[in-house]
Amino acid sequence: MTTQTGVESAEAGGARHRAPGRMSTGRLGDRIFAGSATGSGLIVLAIMAAIAVFLVWKAIPALQANEANFITSEEWNPNATPAEFGIAQLAFGTVMSSLLAMLLATPVAIGIALFIAFYSPRRLASGLGYIVDLLAAVPSIVYGLWGAVFLSKHMEGVSGFLNSTLGWIPFLGGDSPGKNSIFTAGVVLAIMILPIISSISREVFLQVPQAHVEASLALGATRWEMIRMSVLPYGQSGMIGASMLGLGRAMGETIAVAMVLTYVPGINIHLLEDGGATFASNIANSFAEASENGRGALIASGLVLFVITLLVNMAARAVVARRKEFV
Amino acid sequence: MAKRIEVSGLHAYYGGVHAIEDISMTVEPRSVTAFIGPSGCGKSTFLRTLNRMHEVIPGARVEGKVMLDAEDLYGSSIDPVAVRRVVGMVFQRPNPFPTMSIYDNVAAGLKLNGVRRKGQLDEIVEQSLQDANLWNEVKDRLGKPGAGLSGGQQQRLCIARAIAVQPQVLLMDEPCSALDPISTLAIEDLIGKLKSQYTIVIVTHNMQQAARVSDRTAFFNIAGTGQPGKLIEIDDTSKIFTNPEQKATEDYITGRFG
Fold first, then answer.
1. Which residues of B, range 117-136, sit inside 8 Å of A by Cβ?
2. What CATH fold (topology level) applies to the domain B5-95+171-253?
3. Contact with chain A for residue B58, Cβ under 8 A
4. ipTM confidence
5. What is the pLDDT of residues B123-147, one digit of tens each?
6. Which CATH class is domain A84-325?
7. Would you kindly state where each structural domain of chain B is located, as residue ranges?
8. Do B97 and A225 touch (CB under 8 A)?
9. Backbone angles phi, psi at A129, to 5 degrees
10. Do A298 and A292 contact (CB within 8 A), yes or no?
11. How far apart, in whole angstroms, are the C-alpha atoms of residue A120 and residue A114?
């Protein structure tokens, strides 16, 4: 795209010599605009490449010094000699807290979107949509404080209840349900990703062709039946894409998770028990005291997170884009 | 099965815009009534007031009375959803449910009415598709998406979907305007066949079509932009097209305006 713009402006410059003053293209303003737009596009690519190169370059020495398996080890002792570290626990914590957040947030977000798009009075709808979008503007440190100071206290009872009633599910099992758990982190993340899932779903629902809506209404469908027959099938891939974008966002979230979780080494599949770490929370908690090698190890883990979120976001965008062809 | 429609003093509005003014008419059961008139004269709006689809548009409202036999469709105790189950509608552009198969499209209304038994569904789906002259073309691919059919087939599918729930009245809003002449002919034949069972009201821009398919014709007109549409006259189709009472009707059907 960007290179094409450059080519066009070059041609336009040529055209000006042939037919001076006849067309507006090729004037100084056009050339400056084309140049700056192309430049901005190139800068983005350059920044992306620079980040990737930087991460790899910093990570390599630490990875070479690593005595444990980087992928499967649950240890995180990059500052010791010999250094031993692996991302297994971090990957587990990241994936579990984000998946939990997605599972909790998606139904609520879709409910909000349906309410705004089809149930609420028109005047309320725009205000409500605005408020939901405002949730996204709350700084994540505020969510972190709220999660650590307020929510975690109240999560103890919830965790205990889930553990005693649904303890037969392995993830909800364990002997000591606590408050600074992956589960609590998942709840905080769920609230943080609510706005993005809700606003994308809302956009998709508002695009449902009136013809589809009227098709079911004219058959005598109630509003809920109309939503089930016309809206949800149309919006399906949009909703999936939205929740995956939410997942990607939850994976990269740092400070709120770091404030909620208490680090306990090793993978614990009992998500209600205290402990756990994610890529981002681990980096935030350990970076200040890390040695040269420790920083390299953290950067290597950051690189893994970078790749995972990139894949999730690409998959989400692919799903959202597929919907566009289906109209 | 078919019922008589009696409209009296009906006005319809879009927000502050007065769309149609003071319409009264009677539509006889088991007959085809065609609405003709220039664009924007309110004939589609009027059609949509007959199954309470007009009020689906935000800000739209209706005043007046529409009696379906003894029942006022705008009575305070009447649920618009229930009205639409007895007054079916076919739209200008074919609008089958895109994610549903041909079978599910026809069965959609039945399922809303609580028909769940497979045998009964199969039977009604086949009957409706046969009544819509579509069965022979689709009987081997009932599981395929309805959106994969041609435009004319899709419109007949929509008719099958509408008649599957056995409505009292079938409203058709320019059902052939997006179709080629052969598909149009197929739909017109179908209308002729369906009128033995249903009360049919059809909006059309095609005056030959009105002359071919309808028993009664209503002519709507509009005094000027921003003015509400009005019913000029309604009479037997043969009379409207040969010897109408009103000069405006004659001007319109002879092509002197509109």
1. none
2. Rossmann fold (3.40.50)
3. yes
4. 0.89
5. 999 999 998 889 999 999 999 998 8
6. mainly alpha
7. 5-95+171-253
8. no
9. -60, -40
10. no
11. 9
